[in-house]
Structure formats: C-alpha cells, structure tokens
Design goal:
Elements: E1 5-11, E2 14-22, E3 26-30, E4 44-48, E5 66-68, E6 71-72, E7 90-95, E8 101-106, E9 124-130, H1 144-150, E10 155-164, E11 169-181, H2 183-194, E12 207-212, E13 220-221, E14 226-227, E15 236-241
Antiparallel strand pairs: 1-2, 2-11, 3-15, 4-13, 4-15, 5-6, 5-9, 7-8, 7-9, 9-12, 10-11, 10-12, 13-14
Length: 244
C-alpha cells in the first residue's frame, strides 16, 4: 500500500505540489550537505525542511528544531544541531505513544515542547515559521528573523508543512511559479487549497502550518514528480517511506 497520496494544483497563480501522508510516516534527517532529494537514499521521498548556512559548503548546521526518535538530527556545529529555532518560532511535533499525538506550539528550544520526552519510537519534531492559517494577524507570528529576512522578498519556490491535528495527516508542500512571489502569496495559495479564509485573529482549529526553507532549497520528490532546487546540497529534510 502506498504511504502517501500526491496532488498537483494551481492556486493563486502558484503551482502547488503536495504529498499527503500520515504523521507516523515522517522522519526528519540531516543530509549533512552531502546530498539533496534528487540523490537521497532510495527508500525515501520527501521535501527539504530546515534553514542552514550556505557557506562553507561543509557546514551542516541545522537552524531549526529537528528531532527524530528522541535525538536531534545532528550537526558538526554544537550550537545548531537541531535543538533551537533560529528562524521561526514554532514547531509541529508527533509523539508515537499510545495516543499518537500530533501537536503544534510555540517553541524556541526543543526542551520547550510539551510531552515530547515521553514519545515512543518514531516521534519527531520540526521547527519553522508559523503560517497561522485562518488568522488575519498572521504576520505577527512568523518571528522577527523570518520577518526581516523573508516577509518582503520574492522567490520562485517555497516550502511548507501543514498538519491536520484532528486526523494526524501531514501535507508536505512546495509552491513554484515562473515569476517571483511573496510569502503572503504562498500562504493564500495554501489556504485556497485547504478551503480556509482569514476570518479572525485566531489560528484555524486543527490545520496548523509552518513555512520551511525556500528558494533554491525547495525540493519535493515522490513517484509522481521531482521538483528540484538549484542543485545545492541540504541539511535538514523531511523524509517518508514509499510504502508502509
């Protein structure tokens, strides 16, 4: 049985490439600047995830929270090993205990994620900048670093993760367009796909999302499509098994 479903759709002038899977099929991993998703291990598909330092080329720092099976994904830089959110201030986390809990919360450090310490095998966490779906004041929640660096810049590719905390479904999303588009345009495209509108100063009840690293880092690979970046090698990625 396939471990995911794939959808491609154009919303708000942006081509969205979407992998839908379940939370227990997600695995954060550090590519250690030695590969990207077009050359990843054969058992996995997925998307890019964490921000990282482009130079030097052997710097495998992970600039966001990234944990799997109770351990950070690792880095040769002890300050950026997957324990902190340097860009963005929120996380999506899954604890594979008896409750199989999928959650979203504000967290600058891995230790702030409630209940994660008791998670079983396959538990994970990934950090990024809050999309705040359905929240008309969403720009206030992305975090200062993300706001300064990315909110008013355009690029032709962006990446996001959305969690449905009711169903434990995960959406891995890459948006691409021939012309540069803003973060707000990408967010509108995602909301149109999910059928969400900005109606209040509160986030959607169960759809929770994060902006991940974008631009030349944006990649999505599955059986149906290969969305390549600019060829750069990556650090933190989100992988899934092709079959469960």
């Amino acid at each position: 049985m396939s471990s995911y479903t794939y959808t491609s759709v154009t919303k708000n002038g942006i081509n969205l490439y979407i992998i839908k899977t379940t939370a227990n099929n997600i695995q954060p991993k550090n590519a250690n600047r030695s590969w990207n998703l077009t050359t990843c291990p054969n058992d996995f598909y997925g998307i890019n995830a964490t921000w990282f330092n482009l130079t030097p080329s052997n710097d495998n720092s992970v600039l966001n929270i990234a944990m799997y099976n109770g351990s950070v994904v690792g880095s040769n830089n002890p300050n950026y090993c997957g324990e902190i959110n340097d860009i963005g201030e929120h996380v999506i986390a899954y604890t594979s205990n008896s409750n199989n809990t999928l959650k979203y919360q504000h967290a600058l450090h891995l230790s702030e994620i409630s209940g994660l310490g008791g998670g079983g095998s396959g538990s994970w966490a990934i950090g990024g900048a809050a999309i705040s779906l359905g929240n008309s004041n969403w720009e206030e929640n992305v975090g200062n670093t993300f706001s300064v660096l990315y909110l008013n810049n355009t690029t032709t590719a962006r990446t996001a993760i959305v969690a449905n905390t009711n169903s434990n479904d995960i959406y891995l999303i890459v948006g691409k367009a021939t012309s540069g588009f803003y973060v707000s345009d990408f967010r509108t495209a995602i909301q149109q796909y999910l059928g969400i509108s900005d109606t209040s100063s509160y986030d959607h009840t169960y759809y929770k999302g994060l902006f991940l690293d974008g631009g030349g880092s944006s990649e999505l690979v599955c059986d149906e499509v290969t969305c390549s970046g600019d060829g750069r090698t990556l650090t933190g990625v989100l992988l899934l098994r092709r079959n469960m």
